[in-house]
């Protein structure tokens, strides 16, 4: 250990051991088991991007390319992210769909259901100027996004939250873009 190389090796090895130990303790203390659905949760997992009807994506964007199709854990549930974009002679466009299954938290007293958690998330995500729309089986709101030419929609069905963001209706009126997003959500809702 008298050589600089030996000392640096010992320091590096010690740092690696301390880092590994800290990560292990953090993982052990931070989470235990991953979040799992409760027996009463209607959606035991977030649906995949195949829930979004391909013909409606084509109607909105033309020949779109799917950029994102990922499913992963979400604090208290599971989330799927889907995104499509198109580039053509027109302005192009983009469609993003998020599907979040919120699970019941049995550790709360009283028990907090996945349905209640989803309703709370919906309430927090809809701006004051969001317009309520009628969709089968759930609570839905649509609004103009902060970016001009964007329509946003949030839809709550049981313990599943569906969020849609559509940009690219510059050739249409904003009302047409709104109607198209509501129609897309209705098409998805038929399969829920």
Give a nutshell description of this structure.
This protein has 192 residues and is an alpha+beta fold. Helices cover 33% and strands 30% of the residues. The longest helix has 28 residues, at 4-31.
Largest sheet, described in full? 7 strands, antiparallel
Give the end-to-end Cα distance, rounded to a whole number of Å: 66 Å
Radius of gyration: 22 Å
Helical percent range? 25-40%
> How many individual helices?
4
Low-confidence stretches: 4-32
Give the assembly state of these chains: single chain
Query: What's the average pLDDT?
Result: 80
Number of strands: 7
What would your notes on this structure say?
- The protein is an alpha+beta fold.
- The protein is built from 4 helices and 7 strands.
- The protein has a 7-stranded antiparallel beta sheet with strand order 1-2-3-7-6-5-4.
- A hairpin with a 6-residue loop joins strand 2 and strand 3.
- The radius of gyration is 22 Å and the shape is globular.
- The termini are far apart.
Topology (SSEs and partners):
Blueprint: H1 4-31, H2 54-61, E1 65-74, E2 77-86, E3 93-102, H3 114-125, E4 131-135, E5 138-144, E6 150-157, E7 160-167, H4 174-189
Antiparallel strand pairs: 1-2, 2-3, 3-7, 4-5, 5-6, 6-7
Pick out its properties.
7-stranded antiparallel beta sheet; 192 residues; 30% strand; single chain; alpha+beta
């Amino acid at each position: 250990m008298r050589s600089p190389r030996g000392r640096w090796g010992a320091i590096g090895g010690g740092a690696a051991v301390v880092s590994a130990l800290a990560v292990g303790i953090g993982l052990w203390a931070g989470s235990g088991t991953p979040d799992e659905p409760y027996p009463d949760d209607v959606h035991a997992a977030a649906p995949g991007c195949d829930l979004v009807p391909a013909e409606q994506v084509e109607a909105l964007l033309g020949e779109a390319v799917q950029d994102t199709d990922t499913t992963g854990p979400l604090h208290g549930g599971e989330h799927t992210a889907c995104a499509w974009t198109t580039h053509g002679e027109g302005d192009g466009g983009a469609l993003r769909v998020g599907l979040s299954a919120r699970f019941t938290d049995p550790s709360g007293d009283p028990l907090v259901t996945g349905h209640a958690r989803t309703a709370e998330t919906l309430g927090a995500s809809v701006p004051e100027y969001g317009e309520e729309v009628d969709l089968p089986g759930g609570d839905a709101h649509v609004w103009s996004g902060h970016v001009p030419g964007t329509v946003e929609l949030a839809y709550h069905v049981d313990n599943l939250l569906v969020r849609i963001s559509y940009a690219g209706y510059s050739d249409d009126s904003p009302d047409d873009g709104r109607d198209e997003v509501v129609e897309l959500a209705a098409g998805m809702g038929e399969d829920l």
